[in-house]
Write a structure and sequence with these properties.
8-stranded parallel sheet; 22% strand; alpha/beta; Helix Hairpins; 32 strands
């Protein structure tokens, strides 16, 4: 591309109209340290009173939507945008315009003083927003990121709208700050998503319903749920914080078991990785399935009820168990109610001694011992779960 086809400025003040005309002319945009005055709104290209030359603008119509394709590189490095920046439909006409960036788009270390809207856009190349500051609303709703998306050390001083976006490659939000909260509902992360060090300064809970991590079984999403947990705790929504903690621990378990590089391993490497994961079986059975990492106490109650009922049926079955009832003939059959009574007193470790297993019948005594140990363990686990849930804050 010749020098005439590149719009390049450094440390200058330029108008948004000049930048828009360069974009309409198909020129590469390379601005560094510049201040852009006015509204950088791509919708202005199609307003007759603006008098832009749009002969080189690649557009097509799909139903009632206009698709604008920008094939050039767009780079704004350390720039300041004094007005609104809009590569999206107007607020009052959603879905009317779609902008497709075919090459890399870079806004690193730039400051957006007005509203920023990229909703409905498609980034086929790199989407670089590292170090940016968004003073007002930043709308990235229903954006399709085909390549890497970089939002590291970004400060969202206004509300961040990211709902419905799809990240096909890695998404990095490391050390970013959401000053007034954010909307993540319906986001799809197809590969790694890094929210390490992300924090919120507001007391509002981020909206995060229907967030999907396509590789959740590889541990993706752990840092995201940690961010949601911390934001909910600071806002005083401890129930939501508990749910986020549960999701965080589940993804952490998969990260320990497989790791993010699991798909790149050889068959032997995958087998060896899973073989090492055998040590995590107790955590999976007791920590996750039974205990729910302290966030599912009802699971403990259900497990307790199942053990009491199953052992009660066993004790009352004369073909399987031999139980002695003090003061009764040895050959008297146990009713189900008596078996349930023995099971309950054994599980709760009360042991009044009026009904007990026959010392000559080893299987009954083994089941008796198993139930007593299970009861002591599950009751202690239930107390821990309740204490954990009601001691937050």
């Amino acid at each position: 591309m010749s020098e005439a086809e590149v719009y390049k400025k450094e440390n200058q003040r330029v108008s948004a109209s000049e930048v828009l005309q360069s974009i309409a002319g198909g020129m590469e945009i390379k601005l560094s340290g510049c201040t852009i005055s006015g509204s950088l709104d791509i919708n202005r290209l199609f307003v007759k009173d603006e008098n832009f030359d749009t002969k080189k603008v690649v557009t097509r119509t799909e139903d009632s939507k206009t698709v604008v394709t920008l094939a050039q590189l767009v780079s704004f490095n350390r720039c300041t945008f004094e007005g609104d920046v809009c590569f999206s439909s107007p607020w009052e006409k959603p879905g009317e315009l779609e902008v497709v960036f075919k090459r890399d788009v870079v806004f690193n270390s730039s400051a957006f003083c007005g509203q920023t809207r990229f909703s409905g856009s498609i980034f086929r190349g790199l989407a670089g927003f590292d170090g940016c500051t968004f003073e007002r609303v930043a709308a990235f709703r229903e954006v399709y990121f085909h390549s890497r998306s970089m939002f590291r050390t970004v400060y969202f001083n206004g509300y961040a709208l990211l709902g419905g976006s799809i990240f096909r490659k890695e998404a990095r939000f490391t050390n970013s700050c959401f000053g007034k909260g954010g909307n993540f509902s319906g986001i799809v992360f197809e590969e790694a998503a890094d929210f390490s060090g992300v924090h919120s300064q507001s007391k509002s809970v981020p909206i995060y319903d229907s967030v999907k991590f396509c590789r959740s079984s590889f541990g993706d999403g752990e840092s995201f749920w940690r961010f949601i947990k911390q934001a909910c705790q600071e806002a005083g929504h401890y129930h939501h914080a508990g749910e986020a903690f549960y999701n965080e621990r589940c993804t952490h378990f998969w990260r320990q078991l497989r790791g993010t590089d699991y798909s790149s391993l050889s068959s032997f490497g995958k087998f060896f990785r899973l073989l090492k994961g055998v040590r995590l079986v107790p955590e999976f059975v007791f920590g996750r399935l039974l205990f729910g990492f302290g966030e599912r106490p009802t699971r403990i109650l259900l497990a307790s009820a199942f053990i009491i009922l199953a052992c009660g049926l066993f004790y009352s079955n004369g073909d399987l168990a031999e139980v002695v009832q003090r003061g009764a003939p040895a050959n008297v059959e146990m009713s189900f109610l008596d078996g349930l009574y023995l099971s309950t007193t054994t599980f709760t470790t009360l042991g009044p001694g009026d009904i007990y297993p026959d010392r000559e019948h080893g299987l009954t005594r083994v089941v008796f011992i198993f139930e007593a140990i299970s009861g002591a363990f599950l009751m202690a686990l239930f107390v821990v779960a309740l204490a954990k849930r009601f001691s937050r804050g």
